[in-house]
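Support request, priority: normal
Reporter: lab tech (M.K.)
Component: structure prediction queue

Hi team, I submitted a job for Membrane protein YrhP from Micromonospora noduli yesterday, and the status page still shows it as pending. I've pasted the exact input below so you can check whether something in the sequence is tripping the parser. The sequence length should be 211 residues. Please let me know if I need to resubmit or if it's stuck on your end.
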Amino acid sequence: MHGVAVLGFLLAVAPITATPGASLTLVVSRVASGGRRQGWWVILGTVTGLYVHATLAAVGLAALVLRSSQAFWVVKLVGAGYLVGLGLWMLWSASRRRTEAGRRPTVSARRLPWRVDHPYLQGLLGNVLNPKAAAVYLTLAPQFLEPGRPVLVPMLLLATAHVALATCWLAGWTVVSGAAARLLRTASVRRMLDRLTGVILVGLGVRAAAT
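Reply from support: The job had stalled in the queue. We restarted it manually and it finished. Here are the results:
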């Protein structure tokens, strides 16, 4: 694969990567609640999801889902339901939060990655259950592959470039959010941020189901 193809793919996915979505919302929220470490967990989950999409696209499974209107509808509703559920959970957390101002909770940072409320799993599911992310590797990435050659390795190379771009973008927000952590961790700001995060995630879920 030529470097020009990788560069072209990066230019194509850059606007998509920079568009605010579930991953960015989760990064800011989790950094505010538990520090930069939780932001890195969200990023790791997100980029793992990108590799999942690339692999499924390369072996053809994702194409089967998109070609079947019923399967696509199920995946879309599951993803939308996850975002709505996560948003409602954030709203519920905001309503019961009684954290003292300036106190930094650390319990969630030590939770195992497969717990439902762990930032890694939230980032992973938020990406894997997003049909639009799958569409990137089914409609956009193939345009940068050489016809007549095996697609798995080139697809993973494109995914690696995408991962690097997404990591840089989300890492920047992690650093910025971490710099403002003292303000973000005050009880009143935390509750407001949790409510805002919840509303955004619910909105993203509703939009995903409606489109």
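The chain has ten helices and no strands. The mean pLDDT is 78. Let us know if anything else looks off. Ticket resolved.
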